[in-house]
Amino acid sequence: MSAHASPLFEPVVLGSLSLPSRLVMAPMTRNFSPNGVPTDQVVEYYRRRAAEGVGLIITEGTTVDHCAANGYPDVPRFHGEDALAGWKKVVDAVHAAGGKFAPQLWHVGNVRRLGTGPDGSVPGYGPMEKRKDDKLLVHAMTREDIQDVVNAFAQAAKDAKAIGCDAVELHGAHGYLIDQFFWEGTNKRDDEYGGSMEKRGRFAVEIIRAVRAAVGPDFPIIFRFSQWKQQDYNARLAPTPELLEQFLKPLSEAGVDIFHCSQRRYWEPEFEGSQLNLAGWTRNITGKPCITVGSVGLDSEFLEYMVKTDKVAETANIDDLLQRLNNKEFDLVAIGRVLIVDPAWPSKLREGRFDEVLPYSREALKQLA
Ligand code: FNR
């Protein structure tokens, strides 16, 4: 099957979200926004990927307005006039290039690191406190903390709509705050936010409902989740289809429009006895459109291809992906690392110019180009 004849590059309408193609840019932290404000370089970085055929740009995680939301240097904020003015330029540039745009709204929770307060110092408030020996003490969030964070997500989503974004993505994956509630490995609460799957999901449900109330019925809400955690790559949030259903149903009913199902390798079957991946299961359970992700264009055969120019191996991977898309296992395909290295990857795939694809290298993370 050739990529240019594939629905991957055709427009698609998913509820209230119309996209020029089914290719999505995966959210990737880049640390190039000093003082939390996206620069003109950030504008050009996203614009270029949209111009090359990415239908939906999902931004790097951008923090909601809560004192402990950020954990890393030079991560963009999604609050404050300066940061929102920076994002407005990105939105306009992506739209001018024909793409659609969704910020990924983020709170890192207890993954927060030392020295990352708003002024570069360690904060002495919020869910973290500094001890005399410079260690951070983490306390379980109070009901007031929870309400503050719910409100912060809702405000960010409202602001996203106001500056012309086409959707928002809520970062519920990879062991950050929302996921810290989901996962038994981090949720030690014995109140209404801890214990059963339903109770562990309650924080996310409250955020989704608040976001829905803030943006109205027709503004798309994308929700990203994962089995794996940065604290434990082998973690399984929902080890059986039944538990996955218990996990997803309340989120879906609370108002999620699209699920972004984060896997490290998209081709891995989620449960025994079926070839379906996480997106496939999620689509079947919820009936909602799903995004798949994970090493598209980056599997070991592909890397080998890069070295030996063995086109057969590469084409097999893309063929498998397109086959699954045709089989409606998922609706959209997100790509991450290939896009950091090679902004023109979508065009090269569409035009079959495999020999021009740039090889992946971690060196590429050092600059924003
Ligand atoms: C990521 N990823 C990620 N995920 C997320 O939800 N929010 C984020 O801010 C980031 N940041 C980030 C930075 C960098 C440098 C990388 C490489 C990855 C995960 C990313 O969205 C994606 O799920 C994985 O990279 C797998 O897709 P690829 O890269 O194999 O196509």
Looking at the structure, the CATH topology is TIM Barrel
Helical run tally: 12
In the CATH hierarchy, the architecture is: Alpha-Beta Barrel
CATH superfamily: Aldolase class I
Total number of strands: 12
Rg value: 20 Å
**Proportion of residues in β-strands:** 5-15%
CATH class: Alpha Beta
Strands in their spatial order, largest beta sheet: 3-4-5-8-9-10-11-12
Number of domains: 1
Give the topology string: H per helix, E per strand. Answer: EEEHEHEEEHEHHHEHEHEHHEHH
- Uncertain spans: 115-129, 301-313
Counting helices, strands and paired strands, the structural category is alpha/beta
Q: Kindly, what is the distance between the CA atoms of the first and last residues, rounded to a whole number of angstroms? A: 31 Å
Mind summarizing the main beta sheet?
8 strands, parallel, barrel
Bound molecules: ligand FNR
Apparent shape? globular
Q: What's the mean pLDDT score?
A: 89
**Residue share in helices?**
25-40%
InterPro entries: Aldolase_TIM, OxRdtase_FMN_N, Oye-like
Organism: Halopseudomonas litoralis
Domain NADH:flavin oxidoreductase/NADH oxidase N-terminal: 8-355
GO molecular function, one term: oxidoreductase activity
What features would you highlight for this structure?
binds ligand FNR; TIM Barrel; 14% strand; 369 residues; two-stranded antiparallel sheet; 12 helices; alpha/beta
Annotate the secondary structure layout.
Blueprint: E1 12-14, E2 17-19, E3 23-25, H1 40-51, E4 56-63, H2 81-96, E5 100-106, E6 128-130, E7 136-138, H3 143-162, E8 168-171, H4 177-182, H5 197-200, H6 202-215, E9 221-226, H7 241-254, E10 258-262, H8 278-286, E11 290-293, H9 300-308, H10 311-326, E12 332-335, H11 337-341, H12 345-350
Parallel strand pairs: 3-4, 3-12, 4-5, 5-8, 8-9, 9-10, 10-11, 11-12
Antiparallel strand pairs: 1-2, 6-7
Helix pairs in contact: 1-2, 3-6, 7-8, 9-10
Bound molecules: ligand FNR.
Pfam family, one: Oxidored_FMN
Domain NADH:flavin oxidoreductase/NADH oxidase N-terminal: 8-355
InterPro entries: Aldolase_TIM, OxRdtase_FMN_N, Oye-like
